Amino acid sequence: MLCAQADADPDLHGRKLGISGINFHEFCAMFANDLCDCVEDNEMPHFCTEDLIRTVRQAEQTLCFVCGNVGATITCAESGCDRSFHLPCASKGECVTQYFQEFRSFCCDHHPLQPLEVAPAQDTTCIVCMEPVGDSRSYSTMVCPACQYAWFHRACVQ
């Protein structure tokens, strides 16, 4: 109900859950506006049926700035920004979703950047998948903030 994509990747969108006949992905609910309180440590998130219904109804009127379809439940965490999107559209729209602490999301104009000035050397490979990362910084690549030598694809880290 929150992303309208029943076949979404469970590694990125979480387990499929159901409450009172409303089916949704765990992470779609955690990133949705005002739907889940901050989850600490290994606590299970708690979702209220009334809040789920309210969120689904609001989303029926909200367009995703990435795909243009209704049903967007996530709004950019930047104060004053009203861009909304579906969790499955986040990476396509170069949005950043932070899978920790407050589970915040940011649109492409407001997402945090790594405060580093390094660029990958020619022939640098991702240490997760061992595929090339390219020779310049981009949304799809990240560098280890500690050593500034190891490079990753954003999708591999996520």
TrEMBL record:
Signal peptide: none annotated. Keywords: Metal-binding, Zinc, Zinc-finger. The keyword Secreted does not apply. Pfam families: zf-HC5HC2H. Gene3D superfamilies: Zinc/RING finger domain, C3HC4 (zinc finger) (3.30.40.10). The keyword Cell membrane does not apply. One of its GO terms (molecular function) is zinc ion binding. It comes from the Eukaryota. Residues 1-112 form the PHD-type domain. GO terms for cellular component: nucleus. This is PHD-type domain-containing protein.
